[in-house]
Amino acid sequence: MLSRExxxxxxxEMIKVYSxxxxxxxxxxxxxxxxxxxxxxxxSDNAGAGYGGNGRNIVAFLKGNQEGMALGFGAHMDQIExxxxxxxxxxxxxxxxxxxxxxxxxxxxxxxxxxxAVEDILETNAPHRDIYLVxxxxxxxxxxGTKHMDLSMLPCKDLVIADATGDTGVIAYKAPAMExxxxxxxxKKAHAGIEPEKGINAIVAASKAIANMHIGxxxxxxxxNIGHIEGGSATNIVTDEVTFTAEIRSHSMxxxxxxxxxxxxxxxxxxxxxxxSYDFCHELxxxxxxxxxxxxxxxxxxxxxxxxxxxxxxxxxxGGSDANVLAGHGYRSVILGLGMRAVHTxxxxxxxxxxxKATKVLRRMMSVE
Length: 369
Hints:
Elements: H1 4-15, H2 25-37, E1 42-44, E2 58-62, E3 71-76, E4 89-91, E5 94-96, H3 105-124, E6 131-136, H4 144-147, E7 158-165, E8 170-175, E9 177-186, H5 202-212, E10 216-219, E11 222-231, E12 241-250, H6 253-274, E13 277-286, E14 289-290, H7 296-307, E15 313-316, H8 322-327, E16 332-341, E17 349-351, H9 352-365
Parallel strand pairs: 3-6, 3-7, 7-16, 8-15
Antiparallel strand pairs: 1-2, 2-6, 4-5, 5-17, 8-14, 8-16, 9-12, 9-13, 10-11, 11-12, 16-17
Helix pairs in contact: 1-3, 3-9, 5-6, 7-9
């Protein structure tokens, strides 16, 4: 039988395991120990070595005894810092931090919900479809774990990712692509008090470029942001170099490309107006996730929620996840809400009533009705 008490106890146990991005080895060990104890075969890779981490991706498999499409159920093992020595505070159905660390609801709530659903299948010997369990590393740093994943471990193409903010009922079926951008302006040094006219101020050139860029909400599908800027030293020196980083997200690859081109055009015009130069570097951090509403995976997810008395809340979201990276390799994913609040902050909390409801939805999806 599904156990709410066991669900919560396991979550508390997991959040006390230190698992920052690039440092998930201990959490991966914990997951593999659980799988071994429950006689579930699994594979793992060496993904972390590809980007300077010690984590790995884990894929387990439960052979089904029902016909129907195989389904994967996924969550990520890493957690946003600060996440060492997590001290949870339990207030009824809400678990929050003590204000010194993140909680780890993102995404250990997803792991615990998946494991509880699987444990019920094992205990009751219930009929089920082919099930893949997918636990990834370093999702929080541009999905590096999934980008370095050995995808031969995962033949299943339909996945339920338990990793969305909001209550149970949220089904994210579209998410934007993102371009990561780094721009450096090069000017010319000079003494700012004696002969400033001999210098070319890179900060001013960058400012002119940024002033003409589309920043913030561009349209319903597209956003842009300047995230970091640095350069210069003393006020008596005309700054000769400044670098800033930016991102552009869009649900339309055409709009994404157009905004990247426009951002570079702003840089070109600003540099030419001042006699400066610039370097413009960009790369596709992840592609779009886009499912149709009549997709079988979307319909099965909504059906499972309705069977549990939950109204499906189909959403187009603005964030990226493992689902985006997997979409680029031909995988179909929906992302489910679990009651996370204020993720990535020390005010993070988790509504265990919502995790419990999500667990029942996941359990229902593991069997073919």
